[in-house]
Amino acid sequence: xxxxHINAFTSALFTGNPAAVCVLDKWLPDDLLFSIARxxxxxxTAFILKQKEHFEIRWMTPExxxxxxxxxxxxxxxxxxxxxxxxxxxxxxxSKTELLEVNRRGDDIILNFPEKLIEACHYDFxxxxxxxxxxxxxxxxxxxxxxxxxxxxxVRDLKPDMATxxxxxxxxITVTAAGSEADFVSRTFYPKNExxxxxxxxxxxxxxxVPYWSHQLNKTxxxxxxxxxxxxxxxxxxxxxxVLLAGKAVLYKAGEVLL
Length: 259
What we know:
18-stranded mixed β-sheet; alpha+beta; 259 residues; 18 strands
């Protein structure tokens, strides 16, 4: 089975968000897919299977299967465009829940994701856990909390108390603020994830961030920067109930999995 190790949302090696992409010729049992994801030990492994007019896709972390993954999808599209179907300008991925269209424009790969709606929420312990007073706090279902902080510096310098953040019922927490060089900046944490406490670049979080900042800044095209240690950049567009995320990717290594 072919396997590729991709760095997504970056144009430089050793930055961006790493993902494995495995190219299947048939679906394997779930326990075997999870074993491969755990062996890869990367934030996510994307499994893709070619069909007549689309690719089926699933995303697995070493711990669980997720319903959508930005950097895993961008990495999978990079593999399709650069190694499997070099003449394609568009690829359709079919997940368990929807069809995802991915286009390429030069070196940019453009994801077309659904907007994720947010509602205001409040946690008494957040200010103590973050060490800074939030400007506003929102959540998206049971998936993610989004916390607006006062400045880019407060996002960059944040040293959260992970033990306290585990009290949050949602899987992840994203902090954000208006940026100086980019329109907005962010960081994303997964307090209950033993492998990835802080994500490098989080496409899924931008399905919340882009609509919020589009309304705040009164513009539909925005530049975003994730201020993780590895770092990453995303060019964003808010298009109705869809969010377009454009980024680059780099191949780190390629090989075969022997089963």
